[in-house]
Amino acid sequence: MTVLLAVAAGSALAWAHLITLHGRFWTTGVRLPAAAAPDRWPSVAVIVPARNEAEILTQTLPALLRQRYPGTARVVLADDDSTDATGAVAAATAARPGPGERAAGLLPLTVVRPDPRPPGWTGKLWALQRGLAEAADADYILFTDADIVHAPDSLARLVAAAVTGVPPGTAAPTELVSVMARLRARTGWERLLLPAFSYFFGLLYPFRWVSREGGRTAAAAGGCLLIHRATLDGVGGLARISAALIDDVSLARAVKRGGARIWLGLAAGVDSVRPYPRLADLWQMVSRSAFTQLRYSAVLLALTGAGLLATFLGPPAALIAGLVAGDAPVAACGAVGWALMAATYLPTVRWYRQPGWLALSLPVAAVLYLLMTVDSAGRHWLGPTGEAGATRLSWGTFVPASLDQLPGLREGSARWRKMWDLPRLPAPGLPEPARKTCRAVGRHSGGARNRSGYEPSAGRVAPACPRPARGRSGQGRWAPARAVAGRRCASTGGR
User: Which domains are delineated in the chain?
Assistant: First the structure.
């Protein structure tokens, strides 16, 4: 218990330090102010990168086109090689006014398709670059994602704050103004993890430190980022960060290091409507870039994991262990640490309009985010499917090949498979070419899948691989969800 007491006491002290000396990251008071109208409203181009967003654009694009902006503004949608009707839906939305409106009252919309992406560019940044070329004459550029719904005065408020300077009373304009959108939190997984996503972002980049002139902390939220065009060109444009996975933070760092002022905060009326109904969807969103935050360092990963477990999991573990063992000091330290942790999370929970008791769930969210980061590191080291015969490090690695092989879970396996989007394995009897072309992947691979849950490889359509055979007992052996070319799958039939 001595070790646990030390961990619990250290965790409580760590939370006291974070609350008082870490830029008040836990508050939600850094809001976009209602700035005075500028003497002249500059021209603005709103650039929206979109790939396969036909469905979500019907919810978000109308609000963007109906912005009440006193100056000249236009919307450029960069259709990033969509395979659905993204461009057609956008054009139809612009041509179809709402009830009681005239099409002439909407902001003009231009839909562009980027040229083939050159080496050294990510898909999103190349689409944004194409949008910039279309809006070369704009004074300000608003980068916003396709899933963001803007209030009618959102653009005017952003520009007024940038031109007059934030916070209010600032003598000079703020060259980059960014708002962290409020993410959708309706399903159970969204409520558990998405408020925590915003919380951890603020913990990494305290908003007050971001806005501090001369400080080293720099960050932005790519879902809503307004930047002065001359400032963007002055730091080398998007070409400077063309290969960045975390492009918003990279751009903010370049701008701040160039001597310009930046601001990051919250604002009502900037909301994401993208759904993440399953844990697999959230897992993919986080793990594709989580290890990038740690600069691909195994040492930083180990230190981050140890610190996160001690800080977030230590207090509830100490409280439970102290109560079970009857050790009052351990239980008291655990209770104090957990209470301080929940108190820092409560403002974010309220900002997301969630019940207050959800603040107690932060340790669970922290552990899940740590696992996502470990998965992100595994993808970086092993590749998405495990290069050179290595097993893919993901949820599929830690679950049975087929959930209906577990006693007592056969009836619920369909529901669990749908929630986790688990892949099936090729049957051991498949010929060698079939095993090479069938690569078992989940949603987190990002590839297009056929009905059997496989991703076509090397341009060939993967065959529909049958499920592993079962013996008379209906029981199978546990096996990692992998499909390595030339190797028999471990998930065989019965006994």
Answer: 2-23+292-381 (no CATH), 44-282 (3.90.550.10), 402-495 (no CATH)
